[in-house]
Amino acid sequence: MRGFLIGTIAGALAAMAAASAQSPADYPNKPVKIIVNVAPGGGVDTAARLMADKLRTSLGQLFVVENRPGAGGNIGAEVVFQSEGDGYTLLASSPTPLVINGWLYKKLAFDPIAFEPVMVMAHIPNVLVVRTDFPASTVQELVAHALANPDKLNYGSQGIGTSSHLTGELFMKLTGTRLIHVPYKGNTSAVLTDIVAGHLDLSFIQFSAVHELAPSGKLRVLAAATDKRLEVLPDVPTMAEAGFPEVISETWNAISAPPRTSAAIVTKLNAALNAALQGADVVTRFRELQLLVGGGDVAATRKFVENERALWGKVIQAAGVPMQ
To answer: What was the pLDDT predicted at 299?
Structure first.
């Protein structure tokens, strides 16, 4: 009986200590690490560093960004997944580990569904681009040309499972066309270089990567994979206007917490991040980078991630993308 009481008291004290460690009132009381699961310099990394600086000011603690790239983003995600759910280790990532890799990998050292989505920092719309001498000036003309030339046109992507790859698969499914996929192992620059050189016919790629090439005439943008026209491309129609409203495609950058992080801490982080995104300097910097400001409460963020997971899971399964 005495042992039982000691065990019960010890368990209660441990629970109290854990609850205290996650108390939103004093969180954070030490530096917070943000693991970016890609290499430095990209959109995820840039957004994470902007947010880290704002969180340091608003929450009064250091937010240290650490890049842990590799294995399709899985290495960084695994580090965060195995961390304590106390709010002191966070994940900054593209959609890949949260909504895509669970459909692509036979074995993962983390459960994508178990992460606690905190907030989407930025959205990066995809656009349909073609080489300058491509024999089509509209999406409808491209579809007609592709239907007349099955398995002859190619499209580039940053790799299997990326938004550019899966958008191409979705496009083929909806149009009945057959394109050849050319994956580039994460290298956006290589995709664009080969489109400019005429080695690739087309790509569904994030506008932030092509916004300087398009005005120079080195490639052409046929459509935006958005539900409304982009302010920076007022004369470019959307895929919906072209007759394909289902082709809504983007990549996005999100902050997530490990499993079992308390709702109170997730909510506190969400509120701080939403406030940071309202800053005029952040809005200006995002606009310079061709990023659309994210935001939204925790419930909306979770729903968004769930919807994305379901959407792209269906595309992956329908396309028969092999598991790795």
So the answer is: 98
pLDDT digits (tens, 9 = 90+) for 9-32: 444 444 444 444 456 778 999 999
Q: Could you tell me the CATH number of the domain that includes residue 114?
A: 3.40.190.150
In our burial notation (b when 16+ CB lie closer than 10 A, e otherwise), range 30-48 reads eebbbbbbbeeebbbbbbb
Q: Are residues 276 and 315 in the same domain?
A: yes
Structural domain span for residue 207:
125-224
Q: Which residues does 251 contact at the CB level (< 8 Å), separation at least 6?
A: 43, 94, 95, 123, 124, 126, 162, 163, 206
113 shares a domain with 141: no
Beta strands in 46-115 (DSSP E): 63-67, 89-93
Q: What's the structural domain count of the chain?
A: 2
* Residue 23 pLDDT: 63
What phi-psi label fits residue 198: left (phi over 0), alpha (psi between -120 and 50 degrees) or beta?
left
- Closest by CA to 127, choosing from 188, 182, 218, 209, is 209
- Max Cα distance, the chain (Å): 84
Q: Are residues 109 and 257 in the same domain?
A: yes
Residues 171 and 315 in one domain: no
CATH number of residue 210's parent domain: 3.40.190.10
The dihedrals phi and psi of 306, each to the nearest 5 degrees, come to -60, -45
pTM: 0.87
User: In degrees, to the nearest 5, what angle opens at C-alpha 121 toward C-alphas 120 and 126?
Assistant: 85
Terminal C-alpha separation, the chain? 53
Local structure of 25: helix, strand or coil: coil
Q: Tell me which amino acid residue 53 is.
A: D
